[in-house]
C-alpha cells in the first residue's frame, strides 16, 4: 500500500485509490455520488462504516484527479457494454420477446 497526501486515501498494489481501512474504491464512491446525486451526508447514511472525513477525502481525491478518474470510469463503462453485447440476450428476454411481453 502507498500512502497519499489525502488523509484517508491509499493506493493499493495496483495503484488504485482506496479508502484506507476499507475495500471501498474511490471510484465506487464517486459513481454513487454522481449517479444517485448523493451528498456526503447521504453517502455516510448509505455507507455508515465510512466516516464523513473518509468520504470528503475521497471526493477531494476525485476532484484533484478528475481527468484520469473520468477516463477510467468511461473505460469501465465501455467494457461493461462490450460484455453485455458479447453475452447477448438472456433466455428470459428471448422468452418474453417470443410472448410479445417486451419489445
**What's the quaternary structure here?**
single chain
Shape: elongated
Strand content: 5-15%
Overall structural domain count: 2
Query: Roughly how many Å apart are the termini?
Result: 49 Å
Please tell me how large the radius of gyration is: 18 Å
Low-confidence stretches: none
The number of helical runs is 5
Helix and strand succession? EEEHHHHH
Total number of β-strand segments? 3
Largest sheet: 3 strands, antiparallel
Cross-sheet strand order for the largest sheet: 1-2-3
> Helix share of residues?
55-70%
Mean pLDDT: 90
Given the helix and strand composition, which structural class is it? mainly alpha
In short:
With 103 residues, the chain is mainly α. The protein has helices at 26-36, 40-46, 52-64, 66-87, 91-98, and strands at residues 2-3, 9-11, 17-19. The protein folds into 2 domains: 1-64, no CATH class; 66-103.
Describe the structure.
The protein is mainly alpha-helical and 103 residues long. The chain folds into two domains: 64 residues, no CATH class; 38 residues. It is built from five helices and three strands, in the order βββααααα. The protein has a three-stranded antiparallel beta sheet with strand order 1-2-3. α1 crosses α3. The protein is elongated, with a radius of gyration of 18 Å.
Provide keyphrases for this structure.
about 100 residues; mainly alpha; 2 domains; 3-stranded antiparallel β-sheet; about 60% helix
Amino acid at each position: 500500500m502507498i500512502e497519499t497526501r489525502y488523509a484517508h486515501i491509499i493506493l493499493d498494489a495496483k495503484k488504485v485509490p482506496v479508502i484506507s481501512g476499507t475495500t471501498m474504491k474511490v471510484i465506487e464512491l464517486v459513481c454513487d455520488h454522481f449517479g444517485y446525486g448523493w451528498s456526503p451526508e447521504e453517502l455516510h447514511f448509505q455507507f455508515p462504516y465510512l466516516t464523513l472525513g473518509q468520504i470528503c477525502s475521497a471526493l477531494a481525491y476525485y476532484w484533484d484527479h478528475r481527468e484520469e478518474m473520468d477516463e477510467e470510469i468511461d473505460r469501465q463503462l465501455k467494457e461493461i457494454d462490450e460484455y453485455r453485447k458479447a453475452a447477448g440476450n438472456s433466455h428470459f428476454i428471448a422468452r418474453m420477446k417470443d410472448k410479445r411481453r417486451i419489445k
